Amino acid sequence: MATQNLRHALFCAVVTLVISYPILGLNLEAWGTNVVLTGANTTTVISVLLAAVAVFLFQLFRDRIMGTLGKLPPISPFANREPMPQAKWERLKSAFLTLLIIAGLIWPFVASRGAVDLSTLVLIYIMLALGLNVVVGLAGLLDLGYVAFYAVGAYTFALLSQYFGVSFWLALPIGALLAATFGFLLGFPVLRLRGDYLAIVTLGFGEIIRILLNNWTQLTGGPNGIGGIPDPTLFGMEFGRRVREEGNTSFHETFGIAYSSEHKVIFLYLIALVLAVITALVIRRLMRMPVGRAWEALREDEIAARSLGLSRTAVKLSAFTIGAFFAGFAGTVFASKQGFISPESFVFLESAIILAIVVLGGMGSQIGVILAAIAVTILPELAREFSEYRMLIFGAAMVLMMVWRPQGLMPMRRTHIELKKQE
Amino acid sequence: MQDLLYFFQQLINGLTIGSAYALIAIGYTMVYGIIGMINFAHGEIYMIGAYTALITITGLATLGVAWLPLVLIIALICAMIVSSSMGWAVERIAYRPVRGRHRLIPLISAIGMSIFLQNYVHLAQGSRNIGFPALIEGGFQFGSGDAFQTSISYMQITIFVTTLICMTLLSLFISRSRTGRACRAVSQDIGMASLLGIDTNRIIAATFVIGAALAAVAGLLLGMYYGSIDPLFGFIAGLKAFTAAVLGGIGSIPGAMLGGLILGVSESMTSGYLSGEYKDVVSFGLLILILLFKPTGLLGKPEVEKI
Amino acid sequence: MLEVKNLSMRFGGLLAVDQVSLDVQEREIVSIIGPNGAGKTTVFNCMSGFYKPTGGQIIFDGQEIQGKPDYRISRMGMVRTFQHVRLFGKMTVVENLLVAQHRHLNTNLISGLLKTPNYRKREQKSLDRAAYWLERVGLIDLANREAGNLAYGQQRRLEIARCMVTEPRLLMLDEPAAGLNPAETRDLNQLIVSLKEDYNVSVVLIEHDMSLVMEISDRINVINQGRPLASGTPEEVRNNDDVIKAYLGEA
Prior knowledge:
The structure holds three protein chains of three kinds.
Chain A: H1 2-25, E1 26-31, E2 34-39, H2 42-60, H3 62-71, H4 86-110, H5 113-138, H6 147-164, H7 168-190, H8 195-215, H9 217-220, E3 237-238, E4 249-250, H10 251-254, H11 261-288, H12 290-300, H13 302-307, H14 312-338, H15 348-361, H16 366-382, H17 384-388, H18 390-404
Helix pairs in contact in A: 1-2, 4-11, 5-11, 5-14, 5-15, 5-16, 6-7, 6-8, 6-14, 7-14, 11-12, 11-14, 12-14, 15-16, 15-18
Chain B: H1 2-35, H2 42-63, H3 68-95, H4 104-125, E1 130-131, E2 139-142, E3 150-153, H5 154-176, H6 178-188, H7 190-195, H8 200-226, E4 228-229, H9 233-248, H10 253-273, H11 279-293
Antiparallel strand pairs in B: 1-4, 2-3
Helix pairs in contact in B: 1-5, 1-8, 1-9, 1-10, 2-3, 2-4, 2-8, 2-9, 3-8, 5-6, 5-8, 6-8, 9-10, 9-11, 10-11
Chain C: E1 2-11, E2 14-24, E3 29-33, H1 40-47, E4 55-60, E5 63-64, H2 70-76, E6 78-80, H3 93-100, H4 109-114, H5 117-136, H6 152-164, E7 170-174, H7 182-199, E8 202-206, H8 210-216, E9 219-224, E10 227-232, H9 234-238, H10 241-247
Parallel strand pairs in C: 3-8, 3-9, 6-7, 7-8
Antiparallel strand pairs in C: 1-2, 1-4, 4-5, 9-10
């Protein structure tokens, strides 16, 4: 046993060296047309060696280490507590959400312009993640092409404003409905596929849409994208220094205050906040409605659900369409915030980030998803050196979550419908 | 005559790319056949194979080793070793702990692994694409005079022949060796195989290692063929190879070969007659159509749903 | 009301069901019996639309239903249970019954989002119906428990209640007594008879428990190796030589 353990530990250490040294320790560099090899600095080499030693020691004493870890008291203080009664949990959740919204309302008036701008992005991600959460978390459909619907929303607004001068407020419902229609049309044929095939097919659709946006140059501007997307207006008041469209007034003149570019940023932030809150509330309702129960039933046991008269296609399609709808919403806000969009913003990686948010937050759990969206968007901004490692850490986190806590950081707590005792 | 020569040129290009796709597709198809999961990170293993090969070739050039066959063989061996170790480690870290859980969990883990590996190479080697020296140059020309000529480069022949050799070795291995027999047993019924005393964990690890080794071969070949590599270069190739595997019938090794060739040819025909930009659209479209209308692929066995 | 004519089902080279026929009249309990692997569940799977039969006809209320999608057949009023209970284990008992009423509650999304009075009324109605059936099968006290945590016998009863809230006209029960103790089997026996007597439901039953079958069936169909072997009243089947041979002899 001991020798076998030693051999295994040695093997693991060698594998560690083999997979890390050539890639980390020998760097290819292009010098003109030539490629030369340079050795990495000593710290990298030493870390690689240390990693191999660490793996060796861990594998050698694996049983003992795991045994000790198992005996350690759980880190979370809540781990051993009885679950809260549902009513109390609900009240706590509502209170938390209300606090979050109030904080969100005060935020733009105390924070810097850059911070508010970033917060708008966070809110967009919250919308996206909440929408994808319906598809992945509630209905159990892995959609890897979610970003396509986001693109549909954004491009709808960009194109409508470019060709027809349509305003943000009109484009918002149109973008969302168009995205939903896309979801419906794409979903219709593919939703009878099994889970993992569905994931790949949606990934394919997402890529096709991106390639089309990239190559349909006459309409979409191809890789150059579309610029000059207008900001939203407030009852016909524009936020620019000068009024762009005839008949509109400008915000700062109407109220007789000095022009400040901050007004626009704050206004956009508030719009995003309202939309995010609406998204959260609507989805919360949906979860308690028959359609929400149907999603769950189909996720738990498709055959039983079908035997009770639930149409697999109709139920899955509703989730897919609703998810797409909210992505369209988010897309419109994104286009307006950026003022410029290009296919760059709608690559697969973006889908993966949104999926990572949903997975980290705990599939199905709204609060979890909101917190994860905040963390995932803000952390790389807080620590610049961290941002380079962002995707690396995302990838690792996704794997670790699946291995240790597939239910996510804040697992979903089901809200039961209670049958009251009839006296 | 002109048109025919042009057509043959596209066909040759397609078969070249297609046979390399087939090599990558083997990894998807074997893993799917045995544990029923899509190894989403397989494209990255292939990319790492290509990087290792380039590192080795550059290293050998620095050391002054110039004899081409030796350079290629050493590069191939190094790439295979690194990729296989990576395949083994990935299975051990990201897939084995989640095996047997709900279908989406291994898949999400695999996506995470794919993102991780992409960025691992990106951070270590930079995001720019790096030129891959064309070690095998020259070729045959068909067609005469100043008209359009069909050419087959030695590189294309190398790709084709190497693929053929790998596939033959693989079929011999699967049908003759002990491990190969165990592989087949495990893919038929994993529970029964383990009752019969087959170490299923070892067999599953072996499929990952074999798949990764073949992907490394493809990495070296396609790296040379395309002339440059970057950290994202595995992602699309992986999707293409997965398409090839599904097209041929996932789980079937001859199917992967057939699927790879069909995909390669349809891609090069699209580039040749339509536009290079839409070749990805064609292969994704093909994937979607196959999954919708014949999810078992061309050579796959039907699955019967049970209650 | 239900007529199955020459039903066949082939999987590749295996003919699992070969020319099986049976019919069910209003308010009748018909059993399908046969040795293990005789193809009984396959017949059920064809009838409930889970498999598309390779031959023959299934006529329900004068309509051919073979090959129709399963959820359509269920909505026409033919609902089944499963050999291995299939509940929505993480949902509560009462929620299991609410899901089953989904098609009755096909309210549009807007009225649900706004909680219109009409929507509330319908939700309340379905809760009432669920409560009624829970009372009926004796699970009312467990209404807010997770269905997956119930005892096996309770799960079986819940599965039947879940079918009944859909207001079926024909109930297909796949080995409802499997895994039950004698007392529970007696209760089940009474429940099935009362479904017929009090709720005008016809029942098709697959069962191994002969005492149950003989006691409550109006007619019995025996199949063996996918082929029909005998059919008739319990008395006739009990005395049929082929049946006795299939069950006792040759084995």
